[in-house]
Specification:
about 425 residues, mainly alpha, 5 strands, about 45% helix, binds flavin-adenine dinucleotide
């Protein structure tokens, strides 16, 4: 009797790496033929309901670089990455048919658009197929959590304390061994240009705090410099509220957001650093921040689509405005607050903004301008290099008083500017050198 050949499609979305990738490992362990797939789905490059682009040029450029890295890493494993400019709903069923795929491996997602996408693909596939979903994006694996998802605490510190005590972080999944050369498809797929996706080319602004490129190799190089070469990790807690330059914080977020690096890879490297260089409050604090990232993922898993609703997870009724001119003045950095303006211009010119800046401009938008926080969140979604659905909507709800902040605070922008930019260096950097 001839052996049944199993073929797998590994569908990459926000897990753009080959290291620490359980799904890819499982596919290789189980199946004879492996094809990898990524779609620059046209939906992501269209307009959102507020009338601006869902994804702007900064993150797209970073994504193209990330896919370039993924393609090369997969090639070393003798796996072809199919790079698609059509929607997965259209192309995956064709691939399944052509290559007689019987397994689809993918990172499990739970937000609206991702689920809808999977449903559409599933509907369009003829015949039966096995869907193999894995969680690749958290530090604390859902199976290790000490709570049911419905019981995730609404206060971060309760979540953090129990997880820190009771969860063992899993080891890194080993890099798979290369497949036989015969696994490669006959054709290699080209990367798109920004213009193919309807976006203009852009040069990095010399003032950018994020002058880095996409892809796992660049993420690991950043980690090497920040941890091992410059030992900045040892000072992170004191510098993390900074505003200028690349070293006040780790800058891992854009790679984490698209999965070029996993939180576990960072965690285990911090542990290694703590053993061989130094363990202090700063080394712990980077883990603390990675737990915030997990927390917002679990909050969105618990509350589902409420994170996109105006009343948020608190179901609070506030009166929100939606004036276009108010929104426009915020985006363009033309409000009454220079500190807000400097941050918004930085975002517009580079796709980056510090955590301190984000807190201030979001508070100003929702609490001072009293604008519908979802419009601000959608603008961040469009512009940010590191947009991550859970962190973005979770933080926006938190700041806007409809999320997980029991204190419902408002930022005093003048006080914040005085405290974090007392000599106006940051404001001058973005307000004096910008030509309108
Ligand atoms: P570091 O200070 O070096 O922290 C290390 C990592 O911890 C980060 O890379 C990130 O993964 C995680 N982290 C740190 N702070 C937070 C936080 N408040 N919430 C969740 N995770 C955190 N972060 C995103 O990754 N994507 C977003 O779309 C996003 N939107 C935000 C919107 C608002 C309104 C606010 C206030 C914050 C948002 N953040 C978002 C969180 C935070 O601002 C960024 O993660 C951080 O500034 C990234 O810089 P870094 O990698 O140098 O962070």
């Amino acid at each position: 009797m001839s052996k049944i050949i199993d073929s797998a499609l590994v569908w990459f979305r926000n897990d753009l790496r080959v290291e620490d990738h359980h799904g890819l490992n499982q596919a290789i362990a189980k199946c004879d033929n492996i094809i990898a797939y990524y779609s620059f789905n046209p939906y992501h490059y269209g307009e959102n309901k507020w009338g601006f682009k869902k994804t702007e040029k900064y993150r797209t450029k970073f994504l193209i670089e990330s896919i370039k890295g993924l393609k090369a890493a997969l090639k070393k494993l003798n796996i072809t990455l199919i790079i698609d400019l059509e929607s997965p709903q259209k192309t995956i069923p064709e691939i399944v048919k052509k290559y007689q795929v019987n397994y689809i491996y993918l990172q499990r997602e739970w937000t609206e658009e991702e689920l809808e996408e999977e449903k559409e693909v599933s509907k369009a596939i003829e015949g039966s197929i096995s869907w193999e979903r894995h969680y690749e994006q958290m530090l604390f694996h859902p199976e290790e959590l000490p709570f049911d998802i419905s019981q995730i605490p609404e206060v971060f510190s309760s979540f953090r304390k129990r997880c820190e005590k009771e969860v063992t972080i899993r080891p890194i999944t080993a890099l798979p061994k290369p497949l036989p050369l015969s696994n490669l498809l006959e054709k290699s797929y080209e990367l798109p240009q920004l213009t193919d996706l309807g976006l203009e080319n852009n040069e990095t602004d010399h003032r950018s705090a994020f002058p880095f490129h996409g892809g796992t190799a660049n993420a690991l190089e950043r980690l090497r410099l920040y941890f091992w070469e410059n030992k900045k990790l040892s000072y992170y807690k004191n510098t993390r509220n900074g505003l200028i330059g690349s070293d006040y914080s780790s800058k891992f977020s854009p790679w984490l957001a698209n999965g070029s690096i996993s939180p576990k890879m960072i965690y285990w490297e911090i542990k290694r650093y703590e053993k061989s260089v130094q363990k202090n409050q700063s080394t712990y604090w980077l883990i603390f921040e990675l737990i915030w990232r997990d927390y917002f993922k679990y909050i969105s898993m618990k509350h589902g689509n409420k994170i996109f609703k105006i009343k948020g997870i608190l179901e609070r009724d506030y009166k929100w405005g939606n004036s276009y001119s108010v929104f426009d003045s915020w985006c363009e950095g033309k409000t009454s607050e220079p500190f807000v303006n400097a941050n918004m211009i930085e975002l517009k010119q580079t796709g980056w903004m510090s955590n301190r800046g984000r807190q201030n401009v979001a508070s100003f938008f929702s609490k001072d301008l009293k604008m519908d926080w979802r419009i601000g969140a959608a603008y961040f979604e469009s512009m940010l290099l590191d947009y991550d659905v859970h962190s973005n909507y979770g933080n926006w709800m938190y700041i806007s008083g409809v999320g997980n902040d029991p204190r419902d605070r408002k930022f005093d922008i003048r006080w914040q500017a005085q405290r974090y930019d007392s000599n106006s260096k940051f404001q001058n950097l973005w307000l004096q050198n910008t030509l309108f």
